[in-house]
Design brief:
By secondary structure, this protein is mostly helical. The chain is built from 14 helices and no strands. Among the domains are: 58-122, no CATH class; 176-242, Tetratricopeptide repeat domain (Serine Threonine Protein Phosphatase 5, Tetratricopeptide repeat).
């Protein structure tokens, strides 16, 4: 191929010059952006998968032990917060409630213990049932207290005068007067000197409309404590109603 004449070299335009230039490599910006988006997408998938795992994994022994350690340290709010998720993921939720509830009870935290142990009453020993019964009675829930008093006695707790006295109080307050009378009488058969029990028996009889029986019990109380103000007031009311 011959050389171009000087006139031809001069007359070559920009279009002709571009045709002989080497092609530029394609820009990599789009490729990098795609790579970044792919990485971000993978991270989102992994994050979602990990979140799903956290929500659905089984409660571990280490988690339970950690909750127990928080209770021992007095961090009850934190322990209760962790128990929410632990119960949802537990393979044996009743066993979990029993274990953590007992940990609360062992540390004297009867309130949070009751919230858990109330649901697993059948697994409790008699002393635990009694502790919950006393707590519920003091907390103003005589109906549930009655249930746990009965559970304690069914589990083998001796029917002592103090126990029967408290049980009868729960029955009376919850409106089960007939059963309360029977429990108060059983209590007084074991210990006739229990003034409060006899006073409560007399009041329960009066509420049931059994006024003569109430008067007999009130007089028996006044033989033990002649100056008992409540007994004197009840006797006055009973005599007025005759």
């Amino acid at each position: 191929m011959g050389r171009l004449k000087s006139e031809e070299r001069i007359t070559k335009g920009p279009e002709d010059a571009a045709s002989v230039l080497p092609e530029r490599p394609p820009r990599r910006r789009g490729r990098r952006l795609g790579l970044i988006l792919a990485i971000l997408g993978s991270a989102a998938v992994l994050g979602a998968a990990y979140g799903y795992y956290l929500l659905h994994r089984q409660t571990t022994e280490a988690e339970i032990a950690h909750i127990e350690s928080l209770i021992v340290s007095g961090k009850n709010d934190e322990a209760r917060a962790l128990m929410v998720g632990a119960q949802e993921r537990s393979g044996d939720v009743d066993a979990l409630r029993l274990r953590v509830g007992r940990a609360f009870l062992h540390e004297g935290q009867t309130g949070p213990a009751t919230a858990l142990l109330f649901k697993v009453q059948g697994s409790l020993i008699k002393e635990e049932q009694l502790a919950i019964a006393e707590y519920l009675l003091g907390a103003g829930d005589p109906f549930s207290a009655t249930r746990f008093f009965e559970g304690a006695m069914a589990a083998g707790l001796p029917r002592t005068a103090p126990l029967l006295d408290r049980y009868a109080q729960a029955l009376s307050i919850s409106g089960n007067g007939f059963a309360a009378v029977a429990a108060f009488r059983e209590c007084l058969a074991l210990d006739p000197t229990r003034v409060a029990a006899r006073m409560n028996l007399a009041a329960t009889l009066a509420n049931l409309g059994r006024l003569e029986e109430a008067r007999v019990e009130t007089l028996a109380l006044l033989k033990i404590e002649p100056g008992n103000t409540k007994a004197l007031q009840l006797l006055t009311a009973l005599d007025a109603a005759r």
